[in-house]
């Protein structure tokens, strides 16, 4: 990568914060931070470990170990029986997971990644409105339907990632796909569980985007995309920190 590449910023030392965490610690931090911010509600059941593993891009064994340690620390609890599984504790312990600090201190990097994503994704939307093939549009539509049916934030996130990478592929420009993919994957390292109501709402924008692409309407496609990405400054954990109102 040349020093003039826009991706150089992603390798900046500032990112060392979460890079020094191992996979187990990133899972612990992301779930504990989501509980702290009220994104996961007390008593809420977590999705199966395999789904969490796919969504957070780590191994299933790592997820199982993270869940066990968070149970030991009182953030989560395990319940037996038909209503059983791993749940957020009714009164989750706070301040037990120091790895959270690496995420909190990465706020500037996250805001920068959101802006990089915004810049690239507006271009992606514009080009995909002229270049998406019928088969790609069909697949995008199918992913929107799957996100509507998704039973958990983990399942939703896996489809969401595929949706946006497919939109980048629909530009027909391999270079766009490569650069956009690099930014999005970096940003997703900071992805936290979300409440399902929020995700279902955001899926309406996916549907609007597919309609704009199908209608070959680049301006509408860019407008929807801008809304979809700009809001991340407020809805990702970096926008929620220090705002206890996020709990409602
Ligand atoms: Zn999305």
From TrEMBL:
UniProtKB keywords: DNA-binding, Transcription, Transcription regulation
Superkingdom of the source species: Bacteria
Domain (HTH gntR-type) ranges: 21-91
Annotated source species: Streptosporangium fragile
The protein's name: GntR family transcriptional regulator
InterPro entries, A to Z: GntR_C, TF_FadR/GntR_C, Tscrpt_reg_HTH_GntR, WH-like_DNA-bd_sf, WH_DNA-bd_sf
Coiled-coil residues: none
């Amino acid at each position: 990568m040349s020093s003039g590449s826009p991706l150089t910023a992603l390798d900046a030392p500032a990112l060392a914060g979460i890079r020094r965490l191992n996979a187990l610690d990133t899972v612990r931090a992301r779930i504990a931070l989501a509980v702290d911010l009220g994104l996961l509600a007390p008593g809420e059941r977590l999705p199966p470990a395999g789904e969490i593993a796919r969504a957070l891009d780590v191994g299933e064994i790592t997820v199982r170990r993270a869940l066990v340690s968070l149970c030991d620390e009182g953030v989560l609890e395990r319940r037996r029986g038909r209503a059983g599984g791993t749940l957020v504790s009714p009164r989750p312990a706070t301040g037990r997971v120091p790895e959270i600090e690496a995420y909190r201190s990465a706020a500037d990097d996250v805001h920068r990644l959101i802006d990089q994503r915004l810049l690239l994704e507006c271009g992606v939307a514009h080009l995909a409105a002229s270049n998406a093939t019928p088969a790609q549009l069909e697949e995008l539509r199918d992913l929107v339907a799957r996100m509507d049916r998704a039973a958990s934030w983990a399942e939703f996130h896996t489809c969401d990632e595929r949706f946006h990478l497919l939109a980048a592929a629909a530009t027909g420009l391999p270079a766009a796909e490569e650069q956009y993919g690099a930014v999005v994957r970096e940003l997703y390292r900071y992805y936290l569980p979300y409440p399902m109501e929020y995700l279902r709402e955001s899926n309406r924008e996916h549907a609007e985007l597919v309609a704009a692409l199908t209608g070959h309407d680049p301006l509408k496609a860019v407008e929807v995309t801008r809304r979809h990405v700009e809001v991340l400054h407020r809805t990702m954990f970096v926008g929620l920190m220090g705002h206890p109102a996020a709990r409602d």
